[in-house]
Design a protein that fits this description.
This protein is mainly β. 9% of the residues lie in helices and 48% in strands. The protein has 2 domains: 78 residues, Beta Barrel (Elongation Factor Tu (Ef-tu), domain 3); 62 residues, SH3 type barrels, CATH 2.30.30.
């Protein structure tokens, strides 16, 4: 496991005139994280609540609407080590990105993205020739600590 940054939210705009920001969340609960990295700048979370299209947050370092608006588009990250431990059989998407993928014991590519369009997680695999394909994790993927085993029936 690397300690690379994991994006928990992204600033989608300002909320009001007192420095609050609107967030698109990629986690169920942002409140356990006292500080977040915003493109090399540390932000201290003062409060977070449900809001339009996600959440509304206040950071100690953001005092007015102009400062909040300047953060638009900024991903908010924490180191992978800051995330809670997992139970057996669970995984963080960030842990799967970059893993080699094999089918029938042969390398077929690298996991480059994990998507979820509503029916479950799907891994996007990039082949050595640059072409990509997707496989449903629940039906076609065995997740191991250092690789993904892909059911050959799903390899394009």
């Amino acid at each position: 496991m690397s300690d690379r940054p994991v994006t928990l939210a992204a600033v989608i705009g300002a909320h009001g005139v007192q420095g609050e920001v609107r967030l698109k969340l990629f986690t169920d609960d942002l409140s356990p994280y006292a500080t977040l990295d915003a493109g090399g700048r540390t932000l201290t979370l003062k409060s977070v609540r449900p809001g339009p299209n996600g959440a509304v947050a206040r950071f100690a370092e953001v005092a007015d609407r102009d400062a909040a608006e300047a953060l638009r588009g900024t991903p908010l990250t924490v180191p992978r080590s800051a995330l809670p431990p997992l139970a057996d059989g669970e995984y963080y998407h960030a842990d799967l990105i970059g893993l080699p993928c094999l089918a029938d014991g042969q390398p077929i590519g690298t996991a480059v993205a994990i998507e979820n369009f509503g029916a479950g997680d799907i891994v996007e695999i990039e082949k050595p020739d640059g072409k990509r394909f997707m496989a449903p994790i629940a039906a076609a993927v065995t997740v191991e600590p250092d690789r993904l085993l892909i059911d050959p029936a799903f390899v394009e």
